[in-house]
């Protein structure tokens, strides 16, 4: 991982509308990076929500500057004084082809209007909470996993993360390690047999300790026997899903077949889904 960190907070020039200053950039692989920015003093959000962020671009027709924005899940918890984002790099992607080059001190645009369905309010109370992620879909869960409410509300929290290659799991692996060594969160999670947080990473195109798509591992029952938990049931299990479109659709079907129903802010049920951002 290459980390570029601001040594001193750059002076804010506020040249952009809703400008925030980049404080740290980490490059995880040639396809993935994460970055942190200053947080607007007035911004309140619920862990799991997303905001629109981006850069200015020149309109090809008029030659005028206008914002180019995309939805990004906030990966940091709501108590953090900075905001963290986790992004793919698409070489011909309109935004990420440029965003991947940001450095500490640079400004990005951040519209301070958080929204989203991957929030505790959209789920009915339950015993076990599953976070199912592929690729950068882990971002909203990076927020929720660092939110003490997650461990207050559930007896058990399980994060599954499926990526093509082993290197793409590093952001999540570091996240889990940091949570387990955080004094406050570690106390909420507990130890040994009573540990509340479980982590189940898998890869599909490169060798790693656990291979396969999580959807296949659920259908075969392997994930449940590996973790020593009962298959999903609407009485005990709640789920949040965030990944690519095909994955979201497939896992929705599996959850529905288990008797879980999709919830929303206005109508909490047993699971919620959101599409991970792809430039
Ligand atoms: P696979 O390598 O078999 O396509 P991507 O980088 O394309 O967004 O994919 C991220 C991860 O999601 C990959 O490991 C990919 O597996 C997996 N994936 C893609 N489609 C599905 C699906 N329909 N169900 C489960 N996993 C999927």
TrEMBL record:
InterPro entries: FAD-bd_FR_type (IPR017927), FNR_bac (IPR033892), FNR_nucleotide-bd (IPR039261), FNR_type-1 (IPR051930), OxRdtase_FAD/NAD-bd (IPR001433), Riboflavin_synthase-like_b-brl (IPR017938). Belongs to the ferredoxin--NADP reductase type 1 family. Keywords: FAD, Flavoprotein, NADP, Nucleotide-binding, Oxidoreductase. GO terms for molecular function: ferredoxin-NADP+ reductase activity. GO terms for biological process: cellular response to oxidative stress; heme catabolic process. Its EC number is 1.18.1.2. Its cofactor is FAD. It holds the Pfam family NAD_binding_1. It comes from the Bacteria. Residues 15-121 form the FAD-binding FR-type domain. This is ferredoxin--NADP(+) reductase. The keyword Flavoprotein applies. It catalyses: 2 reduced [2Fe-2S]-[ferredoxin] + NADP(+) + H(+) = 2 oxidized [2Fe-2S]-[ferredoxin] + NADPH. The keyword Phosphoprotein does not apply. Signal peptide: none annotated. SUPFAM superfamilies: Ferredoxin reductase-like, C-terminal NADP-linked domain, Riboflavin synthase domain-like.
């Amino acid at each position: 991982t290459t980390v570029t960190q601001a040594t001193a907070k750059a002076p804010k020039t506020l040249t952009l509308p809703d400008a925030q200053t980049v404080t740290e950039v980490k490059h995880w692989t040639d396809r993935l990076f994460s970055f942190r920015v200053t947080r607007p003093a007035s911004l309140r959000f619920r862990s799991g929500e997303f905001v629109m962020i981006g850069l200015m671009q020149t309109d090809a027709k008029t030659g005028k500057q206008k914002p180019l924005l995309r939805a990004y899940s906030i990966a940091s918890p709501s108590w953090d004084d900075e905001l963290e984002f986790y992004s793919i790099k698409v070489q011909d992607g309109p935004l990420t082809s440029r965003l991947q080059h940001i450095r500490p001190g640079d400004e990005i645009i951040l519209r301070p209007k958080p929204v989203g369905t991957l929030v505790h309010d959209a789920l009915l109370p339950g015993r076990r909470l599953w976070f199912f992620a592929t690729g950068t879909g882990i971002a909203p869960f990076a927020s929720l996993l660092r939110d003490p409410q997650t461990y207050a509300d559930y007896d058990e929290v399980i994060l599954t993360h499926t990526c093509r290659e082993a290197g793409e799991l590093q952001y999540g692996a570091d996240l889990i390690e940091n949570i387990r060594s955080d004094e406050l969160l570690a106390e909420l999670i507990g130890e040994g047999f009573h540990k509340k947080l479980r982590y189940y990473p898998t890869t599909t195109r490169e060798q790693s300790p656990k291979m396969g798509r999580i959807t296949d591992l659920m259908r075969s029952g392997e994930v449940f026997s590996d973790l020593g938990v009962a298959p999903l049931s609407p009485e005990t299990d709640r789920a949040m899903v965030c990944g690519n479109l095909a994955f979201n659709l497939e896992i929705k079907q599996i959850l529905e077949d288990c008797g879980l129903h999709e919830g929303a802010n206005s109508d909490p049920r047993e699971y919620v889904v959101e599409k991970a951002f792809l430039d």
